[in-house]
């Protein structure tokens, strides 16, 4: 831990550890009613037990008949009417059946002529256009074949996924148990919104940031009271968190200040595997164990907490829930800004994509939440990189972290 770890290596190490942690949580699966399963992670592949549609049916309103009779000018007698949900009788030779959209084809029929291509007088139908075998028919199993895997384990379920599962007759599905995350914010200066600020105090915005972002991932979040800036208080808070959570997440206290007690507390109670990552904002990031419980310490500055969350904590939490973290979505756009001073670490600047390229938010301080609100991307500048107007730069859209994983 002598030097700072590169972001890519930190991400790789966190993801590898999360896969090991997932193996310990495999037994923590549960059957969930479909109507309650949106947003949860599939624990098992889902295999279709039926064909969808279960039998060949008509894709249009028209007339069902044998292809041999579907000649231009043919005149056929209508022998039955078949609506969706009704049971058809076998088709008499040389006749046709009035059929509605979604109705199953009768035995003996292999073609549907749409009603617009027919003239009907009484029980007689004249074909104004020839048809071929299979026209306007949805074959059995066209959408889903019995025995096929319709959804794979690790998928975060969306509304359309639930509809697909319902279409094969399922009422419940096996999902991973929600990830339990204990969140602690350290610092004597923190005050909850609604309280009056005293000199030197600030409102605890990180509580709301992390709780909401973790909830968007489907995690169950328990927020513990702000921890006093003492080693004893920090150790006790971490002990309690380790007893009730799958992951401990802290903000603040992981730097090298006189009141930063998280690092020594983790080292006293477990181990610290990562401390300091070569990125800006967000260098003071820590990862390790409190006992056997994974610990991730985010910086206390709100923007630093946000950036390290999306780059490092989110993939860890996704994998621990049974979903594989997707590769980062990175574009190249023309810079509508210049940066003449090279940085010593990789920087992730808050920007906004435009038709002409990408601009930077005017406020890039690690404590300025307004830069996150006003941004739709992170502009990734590597250590030592300078930028002139028009230079192609790497851009990571923020929407990729807020989209459901598929």
From TrEMBL:
Record pathway: Cofactor biosynthesis; molybdopterin biosynthesis
Limits of the MoaB/Mog domain: 182-319
Chain segments annotated as coiled-coil in the UniProt record: none
Keywords of the record: Magnesium, Metal-binding, Molybdenum, Molybdenum cofactor biosynthesis, Transferase
Stored Gene3D superfamilies: MoaB/Mog-like domain, MoeA, C-terminal, domain IV, Molybdopterin biosynthesis moea protein, domain 2, Molybdopterin biosynthesis moea protein, domain 3
Catalytic activity: adenylyl-molybdopterin + molybdate = Mo-molybdopterin + AMP + H(+)
Pfam families named among the record's database cross-references: MoCF_biosynth, MoeA_C, MoeA_N
Its EC number(s): 2.10.1.1
EC main group: transferase
Family: Belongs to the MoeA family.
Classification via NCBIfam families: Glp_gephyrin (NF045515), molyb_syn (TIGR00177)
Protein's name in the database: Molybdopterin molybdenumtransferase
Species name: Gilvimarinus japonicus
Taxon lineage: Bacteria, Pseudomonadati, Pseudomonadota, Gammaproteobacteria, Cellvibrionales
């Amino acid at each position: 831990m002598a030097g700072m770890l590169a972001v890519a290596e930190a991400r790789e190490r966190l993801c590898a550890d999360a896969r090991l942690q997932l193996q310990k949580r495999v037994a923590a699966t549960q059957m969930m009613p479909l109507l309650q399963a949106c947003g949860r992670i599939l624990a098992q592949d889902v295999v279709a037990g039926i064909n969808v549609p279960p039998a060949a049916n008509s894709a249009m309103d028209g007339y069902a008949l044998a292809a041999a009779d579907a000649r231009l000018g043919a005149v056929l007698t209508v022998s039955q009417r078949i609506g969706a949900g009704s049971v058809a009788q076998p088709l008499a030779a040389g006749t046709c059946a009035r059929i509605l959209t979604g109705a199953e084809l009768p035995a003996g029929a292999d073609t549907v002529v749409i009603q617009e291509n027919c003239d009907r007088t009484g029980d007689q139908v004249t074909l104004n256009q020839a048809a071929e075998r299979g026209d306007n028919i949805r074959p059995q199993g066209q959408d889903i074949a019995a025995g096929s895997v319709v959804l794979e384990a690790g998928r975060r379920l969306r509304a359309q996924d639930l509809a697909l599962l319902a279409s094969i007759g399922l009422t419940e599905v096996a999902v991973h148990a929600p990830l339990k995350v204990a969140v602690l914010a350290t610092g004597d200066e923190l005050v909850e919104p609604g309280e009056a600020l005293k000199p030197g105090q600030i409102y605890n915005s990180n509580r709301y940031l992390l709780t909401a972002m973790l909830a968007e991932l489907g995690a169950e979040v328990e927020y513990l009271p702000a921890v006093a800036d003492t080693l004893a208080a920090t150790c006790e808070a971490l002990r309690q968190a380790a007893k009730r959570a799958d992951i401990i997440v802290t903000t603040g206290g992981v730097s090298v200040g006189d009141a930063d007690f998280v690092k020594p507390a983790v080292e006293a109670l477990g181990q610290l595997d990562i401390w300091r990552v070569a990125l800006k904002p967000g260098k003071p990031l820590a990862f390790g164990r409190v006992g056997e419980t994974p610990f991730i310490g985010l910086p206390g500055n709100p923007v630093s907490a946000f950036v390290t969350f999306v780059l490092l904590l989110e993939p860890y939490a996704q994998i621990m829930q049974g979903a594989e973290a997707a590769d980062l979505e990175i574009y190249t756009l023309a810079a509508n800004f210049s940066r003449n001073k090279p940085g010593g670490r990789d920087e992730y600047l808050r920007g906004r994509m435009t038709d002409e390229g990408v601009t930077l938010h005017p406020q890039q301080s690690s404590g300025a939440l307004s830069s996150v609100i006003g941004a739709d991307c992170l502009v990734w500048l590597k250590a030592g990189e300078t930028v002139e107007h028009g230079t192609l730069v790497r851009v990571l859209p923020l929407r990729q972290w807020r989209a459901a994983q598929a």
